[in-house]
Every structure is written in C-alpha cells, then in structure tokens.
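Let's study today's protein:

:::
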Amino acid sequence: MKAVVLEEYNKPLVIRDVDIADPGVHEVTIEVKACGLCLSDVHIAEGKVPTVTLPHIPGHEIAGVVAKTGSGVKDFQAGDRVAMSLDLYCGRCDYCLRGETNRCDNLARIGFETDGGYAQFVNIPASNLEVLSEKISFEKACIIPDAVACSYRAIKYVGQVGVGDRVGVLGVGGLGMQAVQIAKLMGAHVIATSRKDEKCDRAKSLGADIVINTGKKDFLEEVKKSVGQFDVVIDNIGTRESVLEALAASRRGGKVVVMAFVTPELTVPGYDLVINEKQVLGSRASNRNEFREAMRLVNAGLIDPDIEAVIPVTQVNQAHEDLKNGKFQTRSVLSMDFE
C-alpha cells in the first residue's frame, strides 16, 4: 500500500510503498477515506512527541470502509462505513475497569505510538470502531475521534454544562468550533473568542450567541457587559494568561476546563480558587463511551462536524505548513487519493 511516512524529524514527509499485515485476531483492516489534520501531527513531525518511533505513519482521525476482518470479528463486515476511537487501551487496569479508558495505565494511541491513517489502509481493533451513517461524509466523520469527541467530553462530562449555563469558548479553531455547537446542543448560552474576525464570524454562524474579538476588545470588560460571569469556560488556548482571564471571568463555583497546554506550568490565584470555590480542570481526549455518544449525535444530525479544506494527501507537506502557520479557521482533512 501507499502511505505517508515520517522518516526524519524536521524533514518533509515522503510517500512510499509499505507493507501491511493481515488483520489480527479481533482486528479489521480499514481502507482509509479521510484523515483529519491536527497540530499534534505537526508536533510529531518536529520530534516533539517522545513516544513516537521512526519510521512512522501519522494520522489519528480516521474514517473509512472495512476492507478485511480478522478472526473473532463478528460486529463488522467488509463494506461497512466506520470511524474509529484512537485510544488503544488494555481493558484490564483499574482505570479501564472503571470505564475510564482514556486514562488507561497501558495507553497507546493510533497515529502516535502506532502507525496511523496517512495511508491507504490501517489495522485497528474492532472494539475501537463505530458504524458511520450513510448521511455523513467521510471528510466530516474523520474528525469525530479527536476534535468532536474531545470537546464533547470537556463540555458534557468535565464541565457538566447544563441548560441555561453561560459558557465561554476561548480560542475557536479546530476544537473550539465543535465546542460551540456542542455547548449549544446542551442548552447553553455561548460566548466565543478569537483574535480573528473571520473565526468570530464562523463561530457565530455555528450558533455562538456572542463573539468577542480579543485582538480588538478587552475580554473581561466585554464578558462583564454581555453575560456578567461564566458558569463554565472551555479554554482552547492553554496559556498562563488565558487561564487567569478565564478564572477572573468565572462566577463563584465556576469551572475552567483546560483542553490546551501551551504553557508547561500554570499559575492560579489561590485565594480566588479557595474562597470563591472556583475549579480548574484538565480534559484529555474521550473515553470509549463518550466517543460512542459523540458518534451517535453526529449520525443523528445533532452535531455537524465543522471542517474547512479537504486536501489531497499528495499535498500533505503543504497542509502541515499551512496548519503550523494558522491558515485554517477550523479542522481541515486529508483525502486519501494517492494518484
């Protein structure tokens, strides 16, 4: 098969022929139709993810068609349209037995610690798959495992957003645009921020009640004027400054859910945290059940995965460069046409 291979860090990715084994017990071979572009893929190519070994095939947001099934697979057959959860979990550790598969002691991730979806085919455990409705394109479906399901977990389960909550989505991009839709689905009043007018406009079109261009207006002042204070803030920026501003804009007992991690160490005001009972919570990926719930909502048409560009895989290096330089307003994807 043909695949995009990272052979050296900080060098262009190359397309070459590679072998793929038959699916193992309880595995399926997926013919990849589309694969999401994530900034993590750029970080992998730059050697910033220490668990990656070379040569490596990136790509962790995958949708496609079942091509082959291994022995023991009963729930899928050739031709099924699917999307996949990217976490490979052991099913035996304390976390897995609690259903917290994203915290597995033996966690590995497709496209990180194993080869991923920048390829014509990939082998995946059948337990990671969910059936994709005929109504949903592969291009939209491929971003569900990361951009959609991560935001779903952060909003529903970590932030515990409910009807009427005032929710701030700081930094609308690949994840933030999905978060706007999901928070609205939960019945929230949503305020989205960006430093770019075009991103603010896109967030507005996806349902944001208020948008704030923080490059032109003071964030705290605008929040105070528009909603007073937030019940929950989803921070997709992940800097010391963004967390401090999110806390300052939160009500007593409010939650700040941090999904990004640009600054290695965060500082929070202890007095504000304790006396006002505010919470700063981290949120990573999604567990297996949360991914299933996100898939069902997409299949039902209640969430419409927001994508921008569909790029031929042969232009992967330019796509990585554009991603690194912030060209895309929201998630963009690769189509697996190697011709």
Summary: The first strand starts at residue 2 and ends at 5. Residues 5 and 14 are 5 Å apart (CA to CA). The mean pLDDT is 97.
